[in-house]
Amino acid sequence: MIRIKGSDHYVYDFDEEVRCSVRGRFRIGRGDSEVLPVVGDVVEYRREPQRDSSGPSGLIIAVKPRRSLFARSETGGRKGYRILGANLDFVFLVHSVKDPVLNVRLIDRMLTAAERDGIEPVIVVNKIDLLEDEAKLAATLAPYPEMEYAVVRTSVVTGEGIGDLAGMMEGRSTMLAGPSGAGKTSLLSRIEPGIEARISNVSSSTGKGRHTTTHFELHRLSSGGWLGDSPGIREFGIWGVEKETLGEYFRDFEPYLGGCRFNTCTHSHEPKCAVKEAVEEGAISEARYDSYLRILESLE
Ligand SMILES: Nc1nc2c(ncn2[C@@H]2O[C@H](COP(=O)(O)OP(=O)(O)O)[C@@H](O)[C@H]2O)c(=O)[nH]1
Ligand SMILES: [Mg+2]
Ligand SMILES: [Zn+2]
Fold it and tell me: Are 219 and 188 in contact (CB under 8 A)?
């Protein structure tokens, strides 16, 4: 399923988009939680008599178990979580060096969610053409390749890194996620020229500006694969993680986790904490540890 608009769920089936409705609820793999189909889901559907001239219609009857998902917690006091996309190979965490300013706290939150969900994140640092302080950026980003996260520097203006990004997308299902204004939609149109026309076609009926991404949807890439643009993320809450296990989602903490005095150590106030010792020795970056403490505080 590639797009949801109101109650219409668009299923891509052999080069055809089938506008489906959804009845009832579906039971899928994750525990016994009942969830509705989300973008990226593989679904079973049944053809129905065509409703109008806008194309074939159907009814979704089942959702296949998801091999991956990417989710954040609900915002605005609502409980639970919101799945941003399912069955994705990568999530590109798109941030910019300027306008908006690079927010490593947000990068770390999104990395934590990706680790929890078992989806491979790629850090994209866009608007590299606006970079003023190379040494500062290099220092900020230094911990990530050490943890074996891929970091790609891009510019829609100069074209830097666009080829690398496009190469990673070939034949895969991926999505762009990140703060509003970081350049997600610009990257999408640079990677897939002509896509803007397709997007504006689709969204023209909503009357929203064509540069405003209001929902997540997957676009077919001519190189093969699917790429999703998503609305900007203002807050990115972590769901479904216990304080005692948050450290497991920090790749740089991993070598030290067995070394704490208490096996329920949250690596904050406890004595004889191997993680804190590693921070003091400089083996774990202070910025990462700071991100960890902030996420820890936000849990429960
Ligand atoms: N200088 C520069 N500006 C960019 C770059 N990428 C995007 N922008 C600009 O940043 C603004 C926000 O881009 P947009 O793609 O709408 O961001 P989104 O909210 O993440 O989809 C637009 O004015 C773009 O022209 C880039 O690589 N360099
Ligand atoms: Mg956008
Ligand atoms: Zn500890």
Answer: yes
* Crossing angle (nearest 10°) for helices 184-191 and 162-169: 80
Same domain, 47 and 182: no
Residues 224 and 75 in one domain: yes
Q: Is the pTM of this model over 0.70?
A: yes
CB–CB of 154/163 below 8 Å? no
Interval between CA 288 and ligand 3 midpoint (Å): 14
What pLDDT, in 10s, does the model give residues 243-254?
Answer: 999 999 999 999
Instruction: Check which CATH number belongs to the domain holding 220 and give it.
Output: 3.40.50.300
Q: From the CA of 73, how far away is ligand 3's center (Å)?
A: 25
Name the domain count of the chain: 3
Is residue 240 a part of any domain in this protein? no
pLDDT for residue 209 is more than 50: no
221 plus 74 within the same structural domain? yes
Q: Mutate which of 102, 152, 158, 186 to test ligand 1's pocket (most atoms within 8 Å of Cβ)?
A: 186
